[in-house]
Design a protein that fits this description.
The protein is mostly helical. The protein has ten helices and two strands; from the N terminus they run H-H-H-H-E-E-H-H-H-H-H-H. The protein has a two-stranded antiparallel ribbon with strand order 1-2.
Length: 234
C-alpha cells in the first residue's frame, strides 16, 4: 500500500473534459486505487481519464520500488558500487518525474530529454489503440476491434502527425452528433473518422442534424368562382 502519489500538471487536460461531479469521482477512485488497490467502476470519459493516470501511477510505483530495492541491496552489501547504483536510481526517478511534468505524456508515449539545449522530443513507440476504439464503440454502440490492422494503421498515422487522444475524442463526438440517424451513419467507422480528413473533422464547427419537413400548406381555391372569372374574361 502506498501512502502518496504524484498528480502531474498534464492531468489537467483530462480533468477539463469532465463534469465537477465526475472530477470528484475520479479523484476518490485514484485514492482508493493507490491506498487499497481497488479498481473503480467508472464509465465514459471518467474511465478513460482514470486509465491514463493509473498507468503513470503504476510506472512511478515501479520506479519507486526499484529505488527502495536498490537502497536495501546497497545496505546489505555495504559496497560503494551498490550505493552508486542506488544513487543513480534516485537520479533517474527524479529526472523522469521532472520530464513528465514538463511534457504532455499520454499513456503510450516515451519522452527523450536533451539536457544540452533543454529541448524535449516526443517519440511515439506505442499507441492507445484500445482507448480510441473503446471510446468509439461506447459512443456509437459498435463493436470494432482494437486489433484490426486497418484501424491501427489510421490511428498510428494520426498520432504520428502530432494529434493526441483528446483530438480523437472530439472528432468522434462531432461526427457522431452530426451523422447518427442520417445516411452518413455508415461512415462512423475508424477508416473514415481517422483517415486523411481527420484534421478537417477536428476543426469543423459543430453542426446539428437538420430534419427536413414539408411544412407547405396548399391554398384552397373556390373553383366555381375561378371558372366564372375565366368565362367572363372570354
Amino acid at each position: 500500500m502506498r501512502e502518496s502519489f504524484v498528480l502531474y500538471c498534464e492531468y489537467q487536460q483530462h480533468l477539463k473534459l469532465l463534469e465537477p461531479s465526475e472530477q470528484g469521482n475520479l479523484l476518490m477512485a485514484l485514492f482508493d486505487y493507490v491506498s487499497n488497490g481497488i479498481e473503480p467502476n467508472l464509465e465514459g470519459m471518467t474511465a478513460i481519464a482514470f486509465s491514463f493516470i493509473r498507468s503513470q501511477i503504476d510506472r512511478d510505483s515501479e520506479k519507486y520500488q526499484k529505488t527502495i530495492d536498490a537502497r536495501k541491496e546497497a545496505g546489505r552489501k555495504g559496497g560503494r558500487a551498490k550505493q552508486k547504483e542506488a544513487n543513480q536510481a534516485n537520479a533517474n526517478f527524479a529526472k523522469q518525474s521532472k520530464a513528465n511534468q514538463a511534457v504532455n505524456v499520454n499513456d503510450n508515449v516515451n519522452v527523450n530529454v536533451n539536457d544540452k539545449n533543454n529541448n524535449v522530443e516526443q517519440s511515439t513507440t506505442e499507441y492507445p489503440y484500445k482507448d480510441v476504439i473503446d471510446y468509439l464503440n461506447q459512443k456509437i454502440g459498435t463493436q470494432f476491434k482494437d486489433k484490426s490492422k486497418d484501424s491501427r494503421k489510421h490511428i498510428k498515422a494520426r498520432f504520428d502527425d502530432g494529434f493526441v487522444m483528446d483530438d480523437f475524442v472530439r472528432v468522434i463526438d462531432k461526427k457522431a452528433a452530426e451523422w447518427t440517424g442520417t445516411d452518413n451513419e455508415k461512415y462512423l467507422r475508424p477508416c473514415t473518422l481517422f483517415g486523411t480528413k481527420f484534421e478537417s473533422y477536428l476543426n469543423q464547427h459543430d453542426t446539428k442534424k437538420v430534419t427536413k419537413a414539408n411544412n407547405f400548406t396548399g391554398r384552397k381555391y373556390d373553383m366555381d368562382s375561378l371558372e366564372g372569372a375565366l368565362l367572363d374574361a372570354n
